[in-house]
Amino acid sequence: MEKGSVTVNGVSLTVCDSKESSFRVAIIPYTFEHTNFCRIGVGSVVNLEFDIVGKYIARLMRNYMK
């Protein structure tokens, strides 16, 4: 998958890698420290919004959204 972006809790982040059932985003230290990302962890519920490329990620994540 080509790079795209995903918005997590209102913050737009660059998708730097994606696999069949997961994706990774790039986040700079300033953004991490000045948003709620420093207070959330694995398994936390977050709001996700996708761009056109992100639709592919949404398709991959359907099984996890049930």
UniProtKB/TrEMBL annotation:
Pfam families: Lum_binding (PF00677). The keyword Glycoprotein does not apply. Coiled coil: none annotated. It is an enzyme of class 2 (transferase). The keyword Transferase applies. Residues 1-61 form the Lumazine-binding domain. GO terms for molecular function: riboflavin synthase activity. It catalyses: 2 6,7-dimethyl-8-(1-D-ribityl)lumazine + H(+) = 5-amino-6-(D-ribitylamino)uracil + riboflavin. Keywords: Repeat, Riboflavin biosynthesis, Transferase. GO terms for biological process: riboflavin biosynthetic process. Its EC number is 2.5.1.9. SUPFAM superfamilies: Riboflavin synthase domain-like. Pathway: Cofactor biosynthesis; riboflavin biosynthesis; riboflavin from 2-hydroxy-3-oxobutyl phosphate and 5-amino-6-(D-ribitylamino)uracil: step 2/2. Catalyzes the dismutation of two molecules of 6,7-dimethyl-8-ribityllumazine, resulting in the formation of riboflavin and 5-amino-6-(D-ribitylamino)uracil. This is Riboflavin synthase. The lineage of its organism: unclassified sequences, metagenomes, organismal metagenomes.
